[in-house]
Amino acid sequence: MDRKKNLQHWQMIAAGLICFDAAAIACSYFFGLWIQFDFQYSRIPSEFIRAYAFSIPIYILCAIVFFGVMRMYRGMWRFVGLGELIRYAFASLVTSAVYCAAITLAFQRMPFAYYIVGSGLQLLLVVGVRLSYRFYTEILAKKNFAPPQAPGKRVMAIGAGAAGRIVVRELMQSDKTSDVPCCIIDDNVNKWNRFIDGVPIVGGRGSICDSVKKYNVDDIYFCIPTASSKVKKEFLDICKETGCQIKQLPGIYQLASDEVLISRLKSVALEDLLGRDPIKVDLDEIFQYIKGKTILVTGGGGSIGSELCRQIAGHEPGHLIIFDIYENTTYQIELELREKYPDLKLTVLIGSVRDSRRLDHVFGTYKPDIVYHSAAHKHVPLMEYSPNEAIKNNVVGTYKTAYAALKYGTQRFVLISTDKAVNPTNIMGASKRICEMVIQSMDAVSRSGRMDLLPFLHAHKDKVVNGQIVPDPMDHIAADGGASCDELKIESVKNKGRTGTQFVAVRFGNVLGSNGSVVPRFKQQIESGGPVTVTHPDITRYFMTIPEAVSLILQAGTYAWGGEIFVLDMGEPVKIDTLARNLIKLSGFKPDEDIEVVYTGLRPGEKLYEEKLMAEEGMKKTDNELIYIGKPIPFNVEEFLKQLEELASASYENSSDIVEIVERIVPTFHPVGEHPEEKITTGAGANAKPVAV
Question: How far apart (Å, rounded) are the C-alpha atoms in residues 299 and 349?
Answer without folding.
Answer: 10
